[in-house]
Structure formats: structure tokens, C-alpha cells
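[Discussion] Sanity-checking designs against the backbone

I'm trying to build intuition for which residues belong where. Below is a C-alpha cell string of 345 positions. I'd appreciate it if someone posts a full sequence so I can compare it with mine line by line.
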């Protein structure tokens, strides 16, 4: 069922491949009116009547024409909004207001749609949906834990019969880690948050690939599991190190994630076709939902009212998929436990 986790990322990165041309088409930041506003803002620190305090500080953080105590408080510096960021945002807002009055449609600025900030959060809808997915991953993990330890029979050593218990615990931690950093990255998209977000995604889909092989082929011997996992762990670790310390190569990262995701999809597709698992229909249902969510990424429309765009809706679509994923995992735990108990009789 970690195919479900894998499929989620297959769809994300496959869709992103379709969106690469749109990322290059940044009509907004090439607009002469926007460029003039940005140039003026960087000189004066103001867009219209709105001025920004941190535009009055030099690169070393010292005030240019104000006393030191007027610097932005430390508790607000987590936002990492600098003069350029604020100038870009407010020039964008001003230019989009002009476009709207003239009947024009929103355009992208620096590769991104014009979103409305909410308490310094860049994409509030995507953040909210990521947070809900994080909560559902936690809920799924807890219900899985309760099922194994309090509802299903245990071995004489008080351990679950389900052979993939430890692997699903690791998956849950990686999934929650990814959705946490997804929320952070959509809150403030800088190089650091992008690196952690991409690294978390690669770690999750890489481990999902391992779990796919082990579960679909019913690999239970520890030595065999190590033989499967070791080269994949080495590959994923090397890729993460490459992204973080050599080059944040988005294209390469998409190829890597897409390749592992497609492999998972093929493996689980064959498994669902030949297995007699009573909950295999949930795998097919997840696939249908995943394909429909892919349409949202490919369509890529401007954010409605500055908040809700296709990518945010993709995040929303992952909420029921996360619930469906853990529903299958619980069913699988019950199925395997009863199967093992029947064999022991």
C-alpha cells in the first residue's frame, strides 16, 4: 500500500515535468511597469505610501538613517522577508490590481502565481492542506499502532504478527516529516526550505519504493530485506547529498523521483491484479483518485482570490488519499495476522 505513498509523489513530479515550461514563462517580472516599481522600491524602500523598515538597513544589518533600536525585532525575523522580497511582493500586488481594473488576467512573477500573504505565509491554502495531511498521517499511524497492539492477537513475546510493522512505523515518520516541511516550504519558499522539502520527498518516495518491493514480493527474511534495501538507501542518500551540497537540480530530482514512483506503480499494479487480498479495491481506488489529482497539477490555473490554485487543490486531494492509504495498511495488518494464525492451527 505504500504504492499509495509512491503514487502521490509520482503524480506530483510527473505533473511538475509538465509545468516546467510555465515556470520559465514569467511574464509578470518582465513587465516594464513592475520592473520600474521594483527599481524605485529598492531605492526608496516604499511602494506607493507603504514603506518597509528593513529597506533602511545595509547588507551588514546596520541602520542607514535610523537608530539601531528601530531594527525589526528578533521574534519577527523568522519570516526572513528582506527588502527585495517585500518590494517584489508589494510591486506585484500593485501591478495585479492595475491588471484587474483593466480586465487583465493574473500572470506569474518569478515563476510563481501572485498569492496573497496571510501573516507572512506565502501560500496559506497549500500550508493548511499540508497541515491537514500531516494530521491525517499522524492519525493513521496512531490507529495502526492501536490496532496492532490492542486489538489484534500478539505473539508470545508480545510483538505483532504483522511482518511489516517496523517498516510502516518508519514510513509514518518519513511521511509526517515530508508534510511538515511541505507546509514550511509553502510558508516561506527560500533555498533552505526547498532543499529540506525536496530531500524529505526523496527520502519518503525512496523508502516507499523499498517497502513496495518488500510487501509486494512478500520478502520476510532479514538478509533478503537488507540486500534489497541497501543499494536503494545508498542511492537515495547520495542523491540527497547531491541536492544539498552540490547542486539543487530540480530536473534531475524530478527524474529520480518519477523513476522510483513509476516502478512502484508498475509493481503494485501487477500485485493488485494477481492477489486475492480482500482490500485490493482500495489500491485501485487510490489510483483513480491519484490520476484525477494529477489533472489539477497539469491544468495549473491562477489562484482564486489570490489563495486557491491548482497546486493547492492537489494538496487538498491528498487528504482523502492519505486516509485511504492508512485504511489499506490496517486492512493489510488484519489480513496478514489472520492468515498467519490460520497457518499455525
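Best answer:
Here's mine. Compare freely.
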Amino acid at each position: 500500500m505504500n504504492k499509495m505513498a509512491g503514487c502521490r509523489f509520482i503524480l506530483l513530479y510527473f505533473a511538475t515535468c509538465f509545468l516546467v515550461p510555465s515556470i520559465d514563462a514569467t511574464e509578470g517580472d518582465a513587465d516594464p511597469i513592475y520592473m520600474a516599481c521594483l527599481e524605485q522600491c529598492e531605492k526608496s524602500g516604499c511602494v506607493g505610501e507603504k514603506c518597509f523598515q528593513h529597506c533602511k538597513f545595509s547588507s551588514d544589518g546596520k541602520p542607514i538613517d535610523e537608530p539601531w533600536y528601530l531594527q525589526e525585532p528578533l521574534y519577527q525575523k523568522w519570516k526572513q522577508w528582506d527588502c527585495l522580497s517585500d518590494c517584489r511582493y508589494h510591486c506585484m500586488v500593485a501591478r495585479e490590481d492595475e491588471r484587474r481594473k483593466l480586465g487583465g488576467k493574473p500572470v506569474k512573477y518569478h515563476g510563481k502565481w501572485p498569492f496573497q500573504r496571510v501573516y507572512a505565509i506565502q501560500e496559506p491554502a497549500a500550508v493548511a492542506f499540508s497541515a491537514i495531511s500531516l494530521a491525517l498521517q499522524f492519525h493513521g499511524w496512531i490507529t495502526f499502532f492501536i490496532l496492532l497492539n490492542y486489538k489484534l492477537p500478539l505473539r508470545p513475546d508480545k510483538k505483532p504478527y504483522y511482518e511489516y510493522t517496523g517498516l510502516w512505523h518508519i514510513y509514518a515518520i518519513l511521511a509526517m516529516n515530508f508534510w511538515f516541511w511541505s507546509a514550511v516550504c509553502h510558508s516561506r519558499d527560500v533555498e533552505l526550505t526547498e532543499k529540506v522539502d525536496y530531500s524529505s520527498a526523496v527520502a519518503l518516495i525512496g523508502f516507499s519504493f523499498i517497502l513496495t518491493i518488500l510487501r509486494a514480493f512478500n520478502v520476510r527474511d532479514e538478509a533478503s530485506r537488507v540486500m534489497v534495501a541497501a543499494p536503494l538507501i545508498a542511492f537515495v542518500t547520495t542523491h540527497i547529498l547531491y541536492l544539498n551540497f552540490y547542486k539543487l537540480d530540480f530536473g534531475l530530482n524530478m527524474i529520480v523521483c518519477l523513476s522510483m514512483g513509476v516502478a512502484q506503480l508498475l509493481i503494485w499494479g501487477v500485485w493488485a491484479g494477481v492477489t486475492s487480498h480482500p482490500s485490493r479495491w482500495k489500491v485501485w481506488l487510490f489510483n483513480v483518485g491519484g490520476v484525477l489529482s494529477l489533472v489539477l497539477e497539469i491544468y495549473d490555473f491562477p489562484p482564486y482570490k489570490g489563495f486557491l490554485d491548482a497546486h493547492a487543490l492537489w494538496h487538498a486531494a491528498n487528504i482523502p488519499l492519505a486516509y485511504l492509504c492508512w485504511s489499506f495498511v490496517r486492512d493489510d495488518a488484519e489480513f496478514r495476522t489472520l492468515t498467519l494464525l490460520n497457518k499455525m492451527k
